[in-house]
Amino acid sequence: MTIQTSVFSLDVTTMELIERKFREKELIAQSKSVQLFNIFQQELTEEETWALKFLYAYMPINDMADYEGSLFLSHVRQTLEIRNEVPWGDRVPDHLFLHFVLPYRVNSESIDDCRRILFNELAERTANLSMAEAILETNYWCHEKATYIGSDFRTISPLTLMRNARGRCGEESTLAVSALRSIGIPARQCYTPRWAHCDDNHAWVEAWADGQWEYIGACEPEVRLNQGWFSPPTRRAMLINTRVPSNYPGPEDITLADEWYTEINLLDGYAPTKIITILVKDEIGQPIIGAKVYFELYNMAELSPIVVLPTNEQGEVSFKTGFGDLVIRAVYAGRWGEKKITVADSTNFEVVLNQTQQLEGSVDYDLVPPPEREGEATDPISEEEMQRHNDRLENGMLIRKNYEDTFLNESEACELASKLELEPERVWDVIRKARGNSREIAAFLEERSLEYGEWPLLLLESLREKDLIDTFRVTLDDHLIGSISQQGEFQKDIFIQYILCPRVQFEMIGPYKRVFQGEFTISESVIYRANPSELVRRINEEWEFREDLSHLKGRTTPLGTYQLKKGDHSSIAIMFVSICRSLGIPARLHPSEQKPQYLTGDSWADALLGQALDHDTEKKNNGTVQLIRDAEAGSGAPVASYSVNFTFARLDNGIYTTLIYPSGKLDVYDEPFEVMQGSYRMITAIRLKDGTVQIRSTYFKVNAGEQTNVTLTFRNVQLDIPVLGSVDRNSKFSLSDGTDKTLGELVGTKGKGALIAWIEPEREPSKHLIREICELAERYSEIGAPIILVVGDDKWNASFDPSGYPSLPSGSMIIKDSVYESLQGFMPHFEEREVSFPHVYVLDEQDRIRYTESGYKLGIAKEALQVLSGVRNHNMNRSEIIQ
């Protein structure tokens, strides 16, 4: 019989498990025992003790390295107090409280002691609401605080997002989950690791209200729960999951039960699903126990695993997924096998581990995503409800705009630059990027520029844009003062990039240079500068490499890894680079391989962390890849763009690792790529309008010291440009200056066609479309077709500034369609359809519709450009024939 206790309804078995893991963490974090565990010497209630033990038991090693026990005790006490203060506190079951309210972490964000701060923002607003109403109200508050913008992989904290007033979906959902938990509502971040039907991923929020999990789009409120522009795409997903920091028992489907966390599969709540079973065999038909099985789909020009699972004692692994295609890759003991599957075809699939060398030549295949599906019918929203909702959206955007107006402006930045005798454009650039942190950045410049001249500005310019919003003077002072003393005779660009700059990868930046300088004796520093491999040797001897203690690889701060004396390989590599820079040794992570290196003479040497040392430099082990244009490619062939339609990856122990180069890199034929010797696979792909991807995998080898020429080819895809209808040239639109024009007047009579799109400027899908059009501005301008972006009165809000898109192609215009009267001519009864903005159309020279797409889908601008080009080429060919 299970014995219940009074502490969070934990049974004896669960308490014993928590206690065992807690004791294990004590051993792991011995080097920080005082900072982490002395809080247990304080007078604690039984609830406080077990809440802390629960958090410590499943805490990722990153947090043990970077934070102290006082932070976690403060968090626990605030959370327990709030549970007693909110009206639904006693209605939330203990198991949901432990797993979805108590946790302090949502994603990979830096941790702030923010629970009471967020509670104070929301308590009064939600005190008299039901749980469902409180969830909606919290999202209106989130909307007041932040809106969407794309950014890099580092996840900023909720307080930083509020300071910045914008962030990507993973950051918006981190804020929303933190806000909901702050008022005692169970919440979790949900995400699809990769979409199957388009390139990208997405994160949103599920929250629990009186027995039911509901979803919302973070910072993008809707009138009701379980609504969002991403609803249609979720019905085409292959996996939607969340990670729970514990041995979570369900009741949801469990995808992966790790020692320290559980991944649960939420796809059932969004899309049709099917459980498939993969049997992994060797060449004589024997099942393989413990093989790693990668469930891969195409996204961002690579085959990306959405989950990696081990086979059981029968050599099998099961996975619940959607009705699309997958590539299954199984690896064990230096052997591997691969198979493309269509989930709808069967329940059971076999993969044979019959490869030890990669294939030769090239292989063509298609990957088809799940089909589009209609959602369930919902009750219509009344005009009164919608008007009230739109008013709240408008008010929220006005609140956010008023806050953004407090940031330092261009004239203030120029005044500061003049005072400090710095270039105004450069000062304004860093001040503009710092946004809500602009006064902190300005204060740093003002305090340090008189003494250090241009160097404070150069330090700021060495950082990534996101760093400027959460890096403060104490950190900037450390890296400025700690670096200048190490300048030596290095070339200026080497010194700035590889000594002065504190940013290594995606870790949180903190002050560490002067700490590291004090940790080593003068003689040790001299030895390491003369021979950095001695520092590598010391790290290999004294630090423990542990890949099993955290899923947050490379997220520990350098100082945290140093103090804990252990970490994952990426975190230790970041620590090595940081120590080197602190001691005046230029160091980096290799731009495409992400391996640690130090500068010796005029070449980069690999720091062989976790390996037996030798003295080969990178250049001795490297060859080059020269990409060759396809001489037989037709005029409609795609323009090669890295991470957009092609990548290449190196084979390592049966797994291909994609090399990192700037996304959208176009100058891929100009010079060879320097890469490590080895076996490589290049993927080129064309995504069709329905989401199907036509892939070509090309295999080649690179030998040390040699150049390998590889022709970059795409499959020959015939562009289908059907006539989908025609439009009325007399449809009227309002220009921003108040005048009216017909569609015919806007499109003109030059016979170049047009792109017309109804957009929702504040929402993520429309922001993606505008960004894509701007990125393709040069090619759109070459075609010369007008681009017409249309905004309705209810979307033309306080924060929308038509002049804020300077990168749009020449000939672009932003106009009004007040009540969407003209949209009705393109899409009758559009308001009854679930699909969201943007609504995009391409017209030919005869005002015929040749392309249409709606809702969330990356690549719309590229598809529209292909259609415009195809129509133009067809017209040019026809003119030549007539002549």
UniProtKB/TrEMBL annotation:
Transglutaminase-like domain ranges (all copies): 161-220
Name assigned to this protein: Transglutaminase
Listed InterPro entries: Papain-like_cys_pep_sf, Transglutaminase-like
Superkingdom: Bacteria
SMART domains: TGc
Record lineage: Bacteria, Bacillati, Bacillota, Bacilli, Bacillales
